[in-house]
Design goal:
The complex is a heterodimer. Chain A is an all-beta fold. Chain A is 0% helix and 56% strand. In chain B, the strands form two sheets. A five-stranded mixed beta sheet of chain B has the order 1-9-8-3-4, with no helix packed on it. Chain B has a four-stranded antiparallel beta sheet with strand order 2-7-6-5, with no helix packed on it. The chains are: A mainly beta, B mainly beta.
Chain lengths: 114, 112
């Protein structure tokens, strides 16, 4: 247990569906991250939030919409996804998002888009 | 960002020490060396990090060369549960948000 939880752990959705991924951290951190890991590829950073403000958006398509209502919760809203969006989506948190701090990852949500 | 080079795979016998090398020849003075591992289909797990001194914790030891151009992660007594992909990452400093750039890592297989 890293102190970062993600739900659901597995998700199957059609291309016309809308779904949301949830992440919660119990570490008192103030920065949270979404990463995507496609099969056989390295992790790709998608979004960074610090103190509930989005500070990084790595050219992610608008069909992915993040939301950070407070420093403990992070959501990734999904709509009209494509099959190539099937991947492991990982959430992480850290103390301040800057410098040499350590990021702690959740277990991930395995997403399959049909 | 400095890049890292790791061997794609290595095997290790259970109970023996596993020494995982990483080259980061373009590392700059304020970049940390981080090690994570990822067991199949799970989230990456933090192992250890350091700047220039050697570090040890309950999981592993990190040896950084004096010129900081390479490092070695040592798992002192490998177990089957240590089978995972191990990532060596150099972390940019204070003006970048969350810039952990994961490469392909080293697939470590611990065998009985």
């Amino acid at each position: 247990e890293t102190g970062v939880t993600q739900t659901p752990r597995h998700l199957v959705m059609g291309m016309t569906n809308k779904k949301s991924l949830k992440c919660e951290q119990h570490l008192g951190h103030n920065a949270m991250y979404w990463y995507k890991q496609s099969a056989k590829k390295p992790l790709e950073l998608m979004f960074v939030y610090s103190l509930e403000e989005r500070v990084e958006n790595n050219s992610v398509p608008s069909r992915f919409s993040p939301e950070c209502p407070n420093s403990s919760h992070l959501f990734l809203h999904l709509h009209t996804l494509q099959p190539e969006d099937s991947a492991l989506y990982l959430c992480a948190s850290s103390q301040d998002g800057l410098g040499g701090e350590t990021q702690y990852f959740g277990p991930g949500t395995r997403l399959l888009v049909l | 960002d400095a890049k890292t080079t790791q061997p794609p795979s290595m095997d290790c016998a259970e109970g023996r020490a596993a020494n995982l090398p990483c080259n980061h020849s373009t590392i700059s003075g304020n970049e940390y060396v981080y090690w994570y591992r990822q067991i199949h289909s799970q989230g990456p797990q933090y192992i250890i990090h350091g700047l220039k001194n050697n570090e040890t914790n309950e999981m592993a030891s990190l040896i950084i060369t004096e010129d900081r151009k390479s490092s070695t992660l040592i798992l002192p007594h490998a177990t089957l549960r240590d089978t995972a992909v191990y990532y060596c990452i150099v972390r940019v400093s204070t003006d970048s948000w969350g810039k952990f750039q994961f490469g392909a890592g080293t697939q470590v297989v611990v065998t009985p």
